[in-house]
Protein backbone atom coordinates (compact mmCIF):
# COMPACT_ATOMS: atom_id res chain seq x y z
CA UNK A 1 0.00 0.00 0.00
CA UNK A 2 2.65 2.52 0.95
CA UNK A 3 4.73 1.82 -2.24
CA UNK A 4 1.72 2.42 -4.46
CA UNK A 5 1.07 5.79 -2.86
CA UNK A 6 4.71 6.96 -2.92
CA UNK A 7 5.32 6.33 -6.63
CA UNK A 8 2.52 8.61 -7.97
CA UNK A 9 3.59 11.32 -5.58
CA UNK A 10 7.13 11.22 -6.92
CA UNK A 11 5.89 11.31 -10.53
CA UNK A 12 3.73 14.35 -9.84
CA UNK A 13 6.64 16.08 -8.23
CA UNK A 14 8.92 15.38 -11.22
CA UNK A 15 6.30 16.47 -13.75
CA UNK A 16 5.61 19.63 -11.81
CA UNK A 17 9.31 20.40 -11.79
CA UNK A 18 9.55 19.85 -15.52
CA UNK A 19 6.64 22.21 -16.14
CA UNK A 20 8.32 24.89 -14.10
CA UNK A 21 11.52 24.41 -16.05
CA UNK A 22 9.68 24.57 -19.35
CA UNK A 23 7.84 27.68 -18.25
CA UNK A 24 11.04 29.35 -17.17
CA UNK A 25 12.76 28.36 -20.45
CA UNK A 26 9.89 29.74 -22.50
CA UNK A 27 9.95 32.99 -20.57
CA UNK A 28 13.68 33.30 -21.12
CA UNK A 29 13.28 32.75 -24.86
CA UNK A 30 10.68 35.55 -25.14
CA UNK A 31 12.80 37.91 -23.13
CA UNK A 32 15.92 37.56 -25.33
CA UNK A 33 14.19 38.07 -28.88
CA UNK A 34 15.71 41.15 -30.78
CA UNK A 35 13.31 43.86 -32.18
CA UNK A 36 12.99 44.17 -36.06
CA UNK A 37 15.39 46.74 -37.64
CA UNK A 38 13.93 49.84 -39.43
CA UNK A 39 14.42 49.89 -43.27
CA UNK A 40 17.23 52.19 -44.50
CA UNK A 41 16.28 55.48 -46.17
CA UNK A 42 15.87 55.36 -49.96
CA UNK A 43 18.35 57.50 -51.94
CA UNK A 44 16.56 59.88 -54.36
CA UNK A 45 17.31 62.92 -56.46
CA UNK A 46 15.27 65.93 -55.38
CA UNK A 47 14.16 69.14 -57.04
CA UNK A 48 12.30 72.30 -56.08
CA UNK A 49 8.99 73.65 -57.35
CA UNK A 50 9.92 76.85 -59.21
CA UNK A 51 7.70 79.87 -59.75
CA UNK A 52 8.14 82.07 -62.83
CA UNK A 53 6.44 83.24 -66.03
CA UNK A 54 5.70 80.27 -68.29
CA UNK A 55 4.79 80.51 -72.01
CA UNK A 56 1.75 78.49 -73.07
CA UNK A 57 2.07 76.68 -76.41
CA UNK A 58 -0.28 74.80 -78.68
CA UNK A 59 1.64 71.99 -80.37
CA UNK A 60 0.88 70.46 -83.75
CA UNK A 61 2.65 68.53 -86.47
CA UNK A 62 3.40 70.17 -89.81
CA UNK A 63 5.26 69.90 -93.08
CA UNK A 64 7.84 72.38 -94.31
CA UNK A 65 7.14 73.80 -97.78
CA UNK A 66 9.23 76.07 -99.97
CA UNK A 67 8.24 79.73 -99.92
CA UNK A 68 8.30 79.62 -103.73
CA UNK A 69 8.87 76.71 -106.11
CA UNK A 70 9.56 77.24 -109.81
CA UNK A 71 10.11 74.68 -112.56
CA UNK A 72 12.51 76.32 -115.01
CA UNK A 73 11.07 75.46 -118.44
CA UNK A 74 12.07 76.61 -121.90
CA UNK A 75 9.60 78.72 -123.85
CA UNK A 76 11.24 77.79 -127.15
CA UNK A 77 12.66 74.66 -128.75
CA UNK A 78 16.37 74.31 -129.19
CA UNK A 79 19.57 72.48 -128.40
CA UNK A 80 21.23 72.97 -125.01
CA UNK A 81 24.74 74.26 -125.63
CA UNK A 82 25.83 74.79 -122.01
CA UNK A 83 24.73 74.12 -118.43
CA UNK A 84 25.77 76.97 -116.16
CA UNK A 85 24.88 75.68 -112.69
CA UNK A 86 25.67 72.79 -110.39
CA UNK A 87 22.99 70.75 -108.66
CA UNK A 88 22.24 72.09 -105.18
CA UNK A 89 23.74 75.49 -105.99
CA UNK A 90 22.30 78.65 -104.46
CA UNK A 91 21.14 80.98 -107.24
CA UNK A 92 19.79 84.51 -107.48
CA UNK A 93 17.15 86.02 -109.79
CA UNK A 94 18.57 86.41 -113.30
CA UNK A 95 21.44 83.95 -112.86
CA UNK A 96 22.10 82.00 -116.08
CA UNK A 97 21.23 78.32 -115.69
CA UNK A 98 21.53 77.06 -119.28
CA UNK A 99 22.07 78.35 -122.82
CA UNK A 100 20.04 77.26 -125.85
CA UNK A 101 21.67 77.56 -129.29
CA UNK A 102 20.82 81.18 -130.24
CA UNK A 103 21.85 81.08 -133.94
CA UNK A 104 18.43 80.31 -135.49
CA UNK A 105 16.80 83.07 -133.49
CA UNK A 106 19.62 85.52 -134.14
CA UNK A 107 19.31 84.87 -137.89
CA UNK A 108 15.59 85.58 -137.77
CA UNK A 109 16.24 88.77 -135.88
CA UNK A 110 18.79 89.87 -138.48
CA UNK A 111 16.26 89.20 -141.26
CA UNK A 112 13.61 91.36 -139.58
CA UNK A 113 16.20 94.11 -139.04
CA UNK A 114 17.05 94.02 -142.77
CA UNK A 115 13.37 94.27 -143.71
CA UNK A 116 13.06 97.28 -141.44
CA UNK A 117 16.00 98.99 -143.14
CA UNK A 118 14.48 98.32 -146.57
CA UNK A 119 11.03 99.59 -145.64
CA UNK A 120 12.52 102.58 -143.83
CA UNK A 121 14.39 103.54 -146.99
CA UNK A 122 11.22 103.25 -149.06
CA UNK A 123 9.37 105.39 -146.54
CA UNK A 124 12.08 108.04 -146.72
CA UNK A 125 11.76 108.14 -150.51
CA UNK A 126 7.96 108.30 -150.33
CA UNK A 127 8.12 111.19 -147.89
CA UNK A 128 10.51 113.03 -150.18
CA UNK A 129 8.15 112.57 -153.15
CA UNK A 130 5.26 113.79 -151.05
CA UNK A 131 7.21 116.92 -150.18
CA UNK A 132 7.83 117.55 -153.89
CA UNK A 133 4.24 116.86 -155.02
CA UNK A 134 2.59 119.11 -152.46
CA UNK A 135 3.82 122.49 -153.85
CA UNK A 136 3.28 121.23 -157.39
CA UNK A 137 -0.35 120.45 -156.62
CA UNK A 138 -0.80 123.92 -155.12
CA UNK A 139 0.47 125.47 -158.35
CA UNK A 140 -1.70 123.17 -160.48
CA UNK A 141 1.20 121.29 -161.99
CA UNK A 142 0.17 117.99 -160.24
CA UNK A 143 -3.23 116.42 -159.99
CA UNK A 144 -4.91 115.90 -156.62
CA UNK A 145 -5.10 112.19 -157.41
CA UNK A 146 -1.31 111.97 -157.63
CA UNK A 147 -0.96 113.72 -154.28
CA UNK A 148 -3.52 111.42 -152.61
CA UNK A 149 -1.79 108.34 -154.04
CA UNK A 150 1.52 109.53 -152.64
CA UNK A 151 0.00 110.18 -149.21
CA UNK A 152 -1.48 106.67 -149.20
CA UNK A 153 1.90 105.18 -150.11
CA UNK A 154 3.56 107.05 -147.24
CA UNK A 155 0.94 105.79 -144.77
CA UNK A 156 1.35 102.25 -146.07
CA UNK A 157 5.12 102.35 -145.66
CA UNK A 158 4.80 103.84 -142.18
CA UNK A 159 2.58 100.89 -141.18
CA UNK A 160 5.07 98.48 -142.72
CA UNK A 161 7.88 100.03 -140.67
CA UNK A 162 5.83 99.64 -137.48
CA UNK A 163 5.17 95.99 -138.35
CA UNK A 164 8.89 95.46 -138.93
CA UNK A 165 9.66 96.99 -135.53
CA UNK A 166 7.10 94.71 -133.86
CA UNK A 167 8.65 91.68 -135.53
CA UNK A 168 12.07 92.77 -134.31
CA UNK A 169 10.78 93.11 -130.76
CA UNK A 170 9.22 89.64 -130.96
CA UNK A 171 12.44 88.21 -132.35
CA UNK A 172 14.38 89.83 -129.51
CA UNK A 173 12.04 88.19 -127.02
CA UNK A 174 12.53 84.82 -128.69
CA UNK A 175 16.29 85.35 -128.64
CA UNK A 176 16.16 86.18 -124.93
CA UNK A 177 14.44 82.86 -124.32
CA UNK A 178 17.65 81.11 -125.35
CA UNK A 179 19.01 82.12 -121.94
CA UNK A 180 17.35 80.05 -119.23
CA UNK A 181 17.69 82.06 -116.01
CA UNK A 182 16.55 81.63 -112.43
CA UNK A 183 13.29 83.50 -111.73
CA UNK A 184 13.77 83.51 -107.93
CA UNK A 185 16.43 83.26 -105.26
CA UNK A 186 16.75 79.69 -104.10
CA UNK A 187 18.47 76.35 -104.40
CA UNK A 188 18.61 74.25 -107.56
CA UNK A 189 17.56 70.62 -107.58
CA UNK A 190 18.40 67.70 -109.87
CA UNK A 191 19.20 68.63 -113.49
CA UNK A 192 16.69 67.12 -115.91
CA UNK A 193 18.41 67.89 -119.26
CA UNK A 194 22.02 67.38 -120.33
CA UNK A 195 24.16 69.38 -122.75
CA UNK A 196 23.43 68.54 -126.38
CA UNK A 197 19.83 67.48 -125.85
CA UNK A 198 16.87 69.26 -127.41
CA UNK A 199 14.64 71.02 -124.92
CA UNK A 200 10.96 71.68 -125.62
CA UNK A 201 8.34 73.92 -124.00
CA UNK A 202 6.20 70.83 -123.42
CA UNK A 203 8.82 68.95 -121.38
CA UNK A 204 7.03 68.12 -118.07
CA UNK A 205 10.14 68.31 -115.87
CA UNK A 206 11.73 71.32 -117.52
CA UNK A 207 15.40 72.00 -116.92
CA UNK A 208 15.52 72.09 -113.12
CA UNK A 209 13.39 72.97 -110.09
CA UNK A 210 14.45 76.01 -108.04
CA UNK A 211 13.05 76.23 -104.50
CA UNK A 212 13.19 79.28 -102.27
CA UNK A 213 14.19 78.27 -98.73
CA UNK A 214 14.92 81.72 -97.23
CA UNK A 215 12.30 82.49 -96.04
CA UNK A 216 10.44 79.22 -95.80
CA UNK A 217 6.94 78.18 -94.73
CA UNK A 218 5.41 75.55 -92.48
CA UNK A 219 1.86 74.25 -92.74
CA UNK A 220 0.58 72.55 -89.58
CA UNK A 221 -2.75 71.57 -88.03
CA UNK A 222 -4.38 72.06 -84.65
CA UNK A 223 -7.75 70.88 -83.27
CA UNK A 224 -10.62 73.15 -84.24
CA UNK A 225 -11.45 73.62 -80.53
CA UNK A 226 -8.43 75.92 -80.08
CA UNK A 227 -9.49 78.33 -82.83
CA UNK A 228 -11.29 80.75 -80.45
CA UNK A 229 -8.19 80.88 -78.24
CA UNK A 230 -5.99 81.74 -81.24
CA UNK A 231 -8.40 84.40 -82.49
CA UNK A 232 -8.68 85.95 -79.02
CA UNK A 233 -4.89 86.17 -78.69
CA UNK A 234 -4.58 87.72 -82.17
CA UNK A 235 -7.11 90.41 -81.28
CA UNK A 236 -5.47 90.97 -77.90
CA UNK A 237 -1.92 91.50 -79.18
CA UNK A 238 -2.60 92.89 -82.64
CA UNK A 239 0.67 91.29 -83.74
CA UNK A 240 1.50 88.02 -85.52
CA UNK A 241 1.75 85.17 -83.04
CA UNK A 242 5.12 83.51 -82.49
CA UNK A 243 5.65 79.99 -83.80
CA UNK A 244 8.56 77.71 -82.89
CA UNK A 245 9.67 74.87 -85.15
CA UNK A 246 11.28 71.93 -83.35
CA UNK A 247 12.43 68.45 -84.28
CA UNK A 248 9.94 65.60 -84.07
CA UNK A 249 11.26 64.56 -80.64
CA UNK A 250 11.01 68.15 -79.45
CA UNK A 251 14.66 68.30 -78.38
CA UNK A 252 16.10 70.51 -81.11
CA UNK A 253 14.97 74.08 -81.73
CA UNK A 254 15.07 74.63 -85.51
CA UNK A 255 13.82 78.18 -86.02
CA UNK A 256 11.46 80.87 -84.75
CA UNK A 257 8.90 82.50 -87.00
CA UNK A 258 5.47 84.11 -87.07
CA UNK A 259 1.98 82.92 -87.85
CA UNK A 260 1.01 84.10 -91.32
CA UNK A 261 -2.34 82.45 -91.97
CA UNK A 262 -5.24 80.70 -90.30
CA UNK A 263 -6.98 78.87 -93.12
CA UNK A 264 -10.47 80.02 -94.06
CA UNK A 265 -12.16 76.68 -93.45
CA UNK A 266 -12.06 73.78 -91.02
CA UNK A 267 -11.22 70.30 -92.30
CA UNK A 268 -14.46 68.43 -91.66
CA UNK A 269 -12.86 64.98 -92.05
CA UNK A 270 -10.39 65.53 -89.20
CA UNK A 271 -11.99 68.34 -87.19
CA UNK A 272 -8.81 70.42 -87.43
CA UNK A 273 -7.71 73.80 -88.70
CA UNK A 274 -4.73 74.44 -90.95
CA UNK A 275 -2.25 77.18 -90.14
CA UNK A 276 0.73 78.54 -92.05
CA UNK A 277 3.82 80.05 -90.44
CA UNK A 278 6.81 81.74 -92.06
CA UNK A 279 10.43 81.42 -90.87
CA UNK A 280 13.57 83.34 -91.92
CA UNK A 281 15.52 80.04 -91.97
CA UNK A 282 18.89 81.78 -92.02
CA UNK A 283 20.70 78.59 -90.99
CA UNK A 284 18.79 76.39 -93.48
CA UNK A 285 17.68 74.08 -90.66
CA UNK A 286 14.23 73.79 -92.21
CA UNK A 287 14.02 71.97 -95.55
CA UNK A 288 11.08 71.48 -97.92
CA UNK A 289 9.19 68.27 -97.19
CA UNK A 290 10.55 67.96 -93.63
CA UNK A 291 8.13 66.83 -90.90
CA UNK A 292 8.51 68.96 -87.77
CA UNK A 293 6.62 70.02 -84.65
CA UNK A 294 5.07 73.48 -84.58
CA UNK A 295 4.56 75.24 -81.24
CA UNK A 296 2.22 78.24 -81.35
CA UNK A 297 2.60 80.71 -78.47
CA UNK A 298 -0.90 81.70 -77.34
CA UNK A 299 -0.41 82.96 -73.78
CA UNK A 300 2.02 83.46 -70.88
CA UNK A 301 1.23 82.13 -67.39
CA UNK A 302 2.53 84.62 -64.84
CA UNK A 303 4.04 83.13 -61.64
CA UNK A 304 3.41 79.63 -62.91
CA UNK A 305 4.65 76.60 -60.95
CA UNK A 306 7.01 74.26 -62.80
CA UNK A 307 8.90 71.08 -61.97
CA UNK A 308 11.12 68.77 -64.03
CA UNK A 309 9.00 66.59 -66.28
CA UNK A 310 10.31 63.42 -64.58
CA UNK A 311 8.56 64.47 -61.35
CA UNK A 312 5.17 63.74 -62.89
CA UNK A 313 4.08 60.10 -62.44
CA UNK A 314 0.96 58.52 -63.89
CA UNK A 315 -1.23 56.38 -61.66
CA UNK A 316 -4.70 54.84 -61.84
CA UNK A 317 -6.23 58.09 -60.63
CA UNK A 318 -4.17 60.35 -62.89
CA UNK A 319 -0.98 62.36 -62.46
CA UNK A 320 0.80 62.45 -59.10
CA UNK A 321 4.16 63.36 -57.58
CA UNK A 322 6.19 62.42 -54.51
CA UNK A 323 6.64 65.38 -52.16
CA UNK A 324 9.45 65.32 -49.57
CA UNK A 325 8.18 66.28 -46.13
CA UNK A 326 10.32 68.25 -43.61
CA UNK A 327 10.82 65.06 -41.55
CA UNK A 328 12.49 63.27 -44.47
CA UNK A 329 9.52 61.12 -45.47
CA UNK A 330 7.63 61.26 -48.76
CA UNK A 331 3.95 61.67 -49.53
CA UNK A 332 2.23 60.79 -52.81
CA UNK A 333 0.18 63.80 -53.86
CA UNK A 334 -2.24 64.05 -56.84
CA UNK A 335 -1.46 66.94 -59.21
CA UNK A 336 -2.94 68.60 -62.28
CA UNK A 337 -0.58 69.26 -65.20
CA UNK A 338 -1.29 72.09 -67.66
CA UNK A 339 1.46 71.28 -70.15
CA UNK A 340 4.86 69.60 -70.48
CA UNK A 341 7.38 71.43 -72.66
CA UNK A 342 11.16 71.71 -72.81
CA UNK A 343 11.57 69.13 -70.06
CA UNK A 344 9.43 71.13 -67.60
CA UNK A 345 5.87 70.47 -66.42
CA UNK A 346 3.52 73.37 -65.66
CA UNK A 347 1.44 72.52 -62.58
CA UNK A 348 -2.11 73.81 -62.19
CA UNK A 349 -2.73 72.36 -58.73
CA UNK A 350 -1.30 69.96 -56.13
CA UNK A 351 2.05 71.60 -55.44
CA UNK A 352 3.25 74.81 -53.81
CA UNK A 353 6.22 77.03 -54.59
CA UNK A 354 9.59 75.97 -53.12
CA UNK A 355 8.36 72.52 -52.09
CA UNK A 356 10.82 69.67 -52.54
CA UNK A 357 9.78 66.89 -54.89
CA UNK A 358 11.38 63.63 -55.99
CA UNK A 359 12.90 63.97 -59.45
CA UNK A 360 14.40 60.48 -59.73
CA UNK A 361 14.10 57.24 -57.79
CA UNK A 362 10.30 57.13 -57.45
CA UNK A 363 10.00 53.48 -58.45
CA UNK A 364 11.62 52.46 -55.12
CA UNK A 365 9.27 54.56 -52.98
CA UNK A 366 6.08 53.96 -51.05
CA UNK A 367 4.08 56.69 -49.29
CA UNK A 368 5.65 57.37 -45.88
CA UNK A 369 9.07 56.00 -46.81
CA UNK A 370 12.14 57.83 -45.51
CA UNK A 371 14.54 59.20 -48.12
CA UNK A 372 18.04 60.57 -48.33
CA UNK A 373 18.72 63.22 -50.95
CA UNK A 374 21.65 62.71 -53.32
CA UNK A 375 23.72 65.59 -54.66
CA UNK A 376 26.30 66.16 -57.38
CA UNK A 377 27.99 63.12 -58.86
CA UNK A 378 25.99 60.72 -56.71
CA UNK A 379 22.76 62.23 -58.04
CA UNK A 380 23.92 61.81 -61.63
CA UNK A 381 24.98 58.21 -61.06
CA UNK A 382 21.67 57.44 -59.37
CA UNK A 383 19.78 58.93 -62.28
CA UNK A 384 21.73 56.77 -64.72
CA UNK A 385 21.19 53.65 -62.63
CA UNK A 386 17.50 54.45 -62.31
CA UNK A 387 17.20 54.71 -66.07
CA UNK A 388 18.63 51.20 -66.41
CA UNK A 389 16.61 49.57 -63.61
CA UNK A 390 13.31 51.36 -63.95
CA UNK A 391 10.50 49.01 -65.01
CA UNK A 392 9.10 49.39 -68.52
CA UNK A 393 5.69 51.13 -68.31
In brief, what are we looking at here?
With 393 residues, the protein is of the alpha+beta class.
How would you sum up this structure, described in words?
The structure is a single chain. The protein is an alpha+beta fold. The chain has four domains: 44-54 and 303-388, conserved putative lor/sdh protein from methanococcus maripaludis s2 fold (Beta Barrel), CATH 2.40.420.20; 57-66 and 212-301, Efflux pump adaptor protein, beta barrel domain (Elongation Factor Tu (Ef-tu), domain 3, Beta Barrel), CATH 2.40.30; 74-101 and 178-206, OB fold (Dihydrolipoamide Acetyltransferase, E2P), CATH 2.40.50; 103-176, Helix Hairpins (Orthogonal Bundle). The chain has helices spanning 2-31, 103-138, 144-176, 227-237, 376-389; strands at residues 42-48, 50-72, 78-83, 90-91, 96-100, 179-181, 186-188, 198-199, 208-223, 242-246, 253-267, 272-279, 291-308, 313-315, 318-324, 330-334, 336-341, 344-349, 356-360, 371-374. Strand 10 and strand 11 form a beta hairpin. Helix 2 packs antiparallel against helix 3.
The largest β sheet comes out as: 6 strands, antiparallel, barrel
Oligomer classification: single chain
Determine the number of helices (DSSP H or I, runs of at least 4 residues): 5
CATH architecture of the largest domain: Beta Barrel
The helix/strand order is HEEEEEHHEEEEHEEEEEEEEEEEH
Secondary structure category? alpha+beta
What is the global morphology?
elongated
The count of DSSP E runs of length 2 or more, i.e. the number of strands, is 20
Compute the number of structural domains: 4
**Which regions contain 5 or more consecutive residues with pLDDT less than 50?**
1-29, 387-393
CATH topology of the largest domain: Elongation Factor Tu (Ef-tu), domain 3
Cα separation of the termini: 86 Å
CATH superfamily of the largest domain: Efflux pump adaptor protein, beta barrel domain
Sheet with the most strands: spatial strand order? 2-9-12-11-10-13
Q: State the helical fraction.
A: 25-40%
Amino acid sequence: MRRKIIIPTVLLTVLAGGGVVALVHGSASNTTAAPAAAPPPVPVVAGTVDQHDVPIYLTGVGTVIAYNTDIVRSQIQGQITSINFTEGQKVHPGDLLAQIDPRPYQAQLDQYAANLDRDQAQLTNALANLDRYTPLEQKGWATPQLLDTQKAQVAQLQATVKADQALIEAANVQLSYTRLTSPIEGVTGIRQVDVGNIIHPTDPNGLVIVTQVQPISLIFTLPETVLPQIQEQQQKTGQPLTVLATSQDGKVMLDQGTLGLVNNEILQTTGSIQLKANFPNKANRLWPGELVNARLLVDTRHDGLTVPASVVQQGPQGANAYVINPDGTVALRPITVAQIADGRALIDSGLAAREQVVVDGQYKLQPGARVTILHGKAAREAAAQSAQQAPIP
